[in-house]
Design a protein that fits this description.
alpha+beta; Aminopeptidase; ten-stranded mixed β-sheet; Ribosomal_N-acetyltransferase
Length: 214
């Protein structure tokens, strides 16, 4: 879509590609959402979450609407970039980057999900490393955060491996039931110590032109 350059932003690593979530890519990924492959046990997402919708068609509709709403919000205190995770040419999940008062503090957080048939292969860590490279190297972020329920062992392990430090905990609900969230914090200095040279950014200048970064 030539009139929305943010949809041309990509991040590539030797194992995965993050492609900005165009409607065409979302249409392909909808089959994964419809099949329930974004779900996990124990439940990984805090409420509200469209992926918890039990009806497959309504689940896809709510999921798409939430992305379209978020894609249209670009403000100094909150913006969100949605990426489809592509492995071997196939869309298998999503990895989002969220600016939180970025203009003032340079802070971001992230959200992701991965199809159940691609978990346990290192893809989750690779896609998080890719989005952190965009945040720190491409956008000049000063700090990144992440949250995960205490029993989401995969997400918590990725945060540890990528250099995040524990940053407290808090309660949230998932499917209406209370659960304890771990908070994680990654400073720019800690990211620099693990900085990779095999992650490539593409068309990142669109972010500087269209997002309220400074």
């Amino acid at each position: 879509m030539k009139n929305h350059p943010l949809l041309a932003v990509r991040v590539t690593t030797p194992a995965v590609e993050l492609r900005a979530a165009s409607d065409d890519l979302l249409d392909e990924l909808a089959d994964v959402v419809r099949a329930g492959k974004a779900h996990a046990d124990p439940a990984p997402y805090d409420d509200p979450m469209s992926l918890y919708e039990p009806d497959p068609e309504l689940r896809v509709a709510r999921w798409l609407r939430s992305i379209w709403r978020g894609r249209g919000r670009v403000e100094p205190d909150a913006w969100r970039l949605y990426f489809v995770v592509v492995v071997g040419g196939r869309p298998v999940g999503m990895q989002d980057l969220i600016g939180v008062h970025f203009r003032t503090f340079g802070t971001v957080t992230s959200f992701s999900w991965l199809a159940d048939d691609h978990r346990g292969r290192g893809v989750g860590q690779e896609m998080r490393a890719a989005i952190l490279h965009l945040a720190f190297d491409g956008l000049g972020a000063s700090e990144a955060s992440s949250d995960a329920f205490t029993d989401n062992h995969g997400s918590n392990a990725i945060s540890r491996k990528l250099g995040y430090q524990p940053n407290g905990s808090d309660w949230a609900t998932r499917q209406g039931e209370p659960g304890l969230l771990n908070h994680w914090r990654l400073t720019r200095d800690n990211w620099e110590q693990r900085r990779r040279d095999d992650i490539q950014l593409h068309n990142v200048e669109a972010c500087h032109a269209l997002l309220p970064l400074s």
